[in-house]
């Protein structure tokens, strides 16, 4: 299956992700290893496995898109990476050191890793001016420099120029795009190394989305910022990301460079997500039912209850139907281990028995033909 996602308007101006990609063997800036986050179940049910074993790495200057449908665990994983939720198991490391969940350490960590929320109207206090909204971070963290100059520089970097013109404005006096730029300025004022952006353009008009994406790319080019962009919009991932991680029911099921994952998807879930884009060839793949309850994750492959290949007999013909029903695919490393030679993080990975069987070498190539040309 081949598709060129175009659901989100593409940014113009700064170089694209492929032109700015960093060395595939550079040590991760932020990494998660075996992260699990569970919440107590209701009415006697077992724990809800919101994040159920995730490895993920983000390198300096790299933009990673975390993609999946609502409820798959994307935001919970992002909160765990930010230190807002302590993992039930596994660990998060930043700059080679495990995250310390003591108050002082978390405060220092959050100066280096900043969150950009989905809804700027909900992120900004309606009673605070733009100046106070951006200055809140430096005041909390005890910034010792010139506060006014720092706020002005952050607003200018976020594209609000001249910055002084916005100092005394309130959120209701700004457009949606301007409010999102204020939120981004509030993150930039602390000079972070990594941004975690949770659906950063979901609440904006289509005409403004490309401007915000172009801003994020420009910040990466000018400041060397890394970013984790949480989204359900594959078009956004295509336009901004170096690498994509596709998440389903608490686990990453496919990862690789944006070109690998979005032009030649290997997991049937990724194929289904891409099939509904306007320019995707063939008929859309309509998945049956809803994602399973995270308190009752099915045995075997967690996608098997909705998998179009298992339900349609393709997995039987490939000889992997029993494996799909009984064997849980391994956890993907999510971007390569530290110190690995050869840049394993650049190699696409998939947690799918059918994909592995299809790609297994044989006398005449893959054992199963591709779904579509």
UniProtKB/TrEMBL annotation:
Keywords assigned by UniProt, alphabetized: ATP-binding, Nucleotide-binding, Transport
GO molecular function terms listed in the Swiss-Prot or TrEMBL record: ATP binding
Region spans: Disordered: 1-29
Biased composition (Low complexity): 1-10, 18-29
SUPFAM superfamilies attached to this UniProt entry: P-loop containing nucleoside triphosphate hydrolases
InterPro entries with a match to the protein in the record: AAA+_ATPase (IPR003593), ABC_transp_ATP-bind (IPR050319), ABC_transporter-like_ATP-bd (IPR003439), ABC_transporter-like_CS (IPR017871), Oligopep_ABC_C (IPR013563), P-loop_NTPase (IPR027417)
Pfam families registered for this protein in UniProt: ABC_tran, oligo_HPY
Family: Belongs to the ABC transporter superfamily.
Protein name as annotated: ABC transporter ATP-binding protein
Organism: Streptomyces hirsutus
């Amino acid at each position: 299956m081949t598709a060129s996602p175009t659901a989100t308007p593409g940014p113009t101006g700064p170089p694209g992700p492929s032109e700015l990609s960093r060395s595939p063997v550079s040590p991760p800036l932020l990494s998660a290893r075996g992260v699990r986050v569970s919440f107590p179940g209701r009415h006697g049910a077992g724990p809800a496995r919101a994040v159920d074993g995730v490895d993920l790495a983000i390198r300096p200057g790299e933009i990673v898109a975390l993609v999946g449908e609502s409820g798959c665990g994307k935001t919970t994983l992002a909160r765990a990476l930010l230190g807002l939720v302590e993992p039930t198991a596994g660990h998060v490391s930043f700059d080679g050191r495990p995250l310390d969940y003591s108050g002082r350490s978390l405060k220092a960590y959050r100066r280096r890793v900043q969150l950009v929320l989905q809804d700027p109207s909900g992120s900004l206090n309606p009673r605070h001016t733009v100046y106070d909204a951006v200055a809140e971070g430096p005041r909390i963290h005890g910034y010792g420099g010139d506060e006014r100059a720092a706020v002005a520089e952050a607003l200018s970097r976020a594209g609000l120029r001249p910055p002084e013109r916005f100092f005394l404005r309130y959120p209701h006096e700004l457009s949606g795009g301007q409010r999102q730029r204020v939120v981004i300025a509030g993150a930039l004022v602390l000079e972070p190394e990594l941004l975690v952006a949770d659906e950063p353009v979901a609440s904006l008009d289509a005409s403004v989305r490309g401007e915000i994406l172009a801003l994020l790319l420009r910040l990466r080019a000018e400041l060397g910022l890394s970013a984790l962009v949480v989204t359900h919009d594959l078009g956004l991932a295509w336009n901004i990301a170096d690498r994509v991680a596709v998440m389903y029911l608490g686990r990453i099921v496919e990862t690789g460079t944006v070109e690998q994952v979005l032009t030649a998807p290997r997991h049937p879930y990724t194929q289904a997500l891409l099939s509904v884009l306007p320019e995707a060839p063939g008929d859309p793949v309509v998945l049956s039912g809803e994602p399973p309850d995270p308190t009752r994750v099915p045995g075997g492959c967690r996608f098997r209850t909705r998998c179009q290949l298992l339900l349609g007999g393709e997995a039987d013909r490939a000889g992997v139907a029993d494996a799909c029903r009984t064997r849980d695919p391994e956890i993907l490393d999510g971007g390569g281990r530290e110190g690995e030679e050869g840049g394993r993080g650049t190699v696409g990975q998939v947690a799918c028995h059918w994909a592995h069987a299809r790609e297994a070498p044989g006398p005449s190539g893959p054992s199963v033909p591709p779904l579509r040309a």
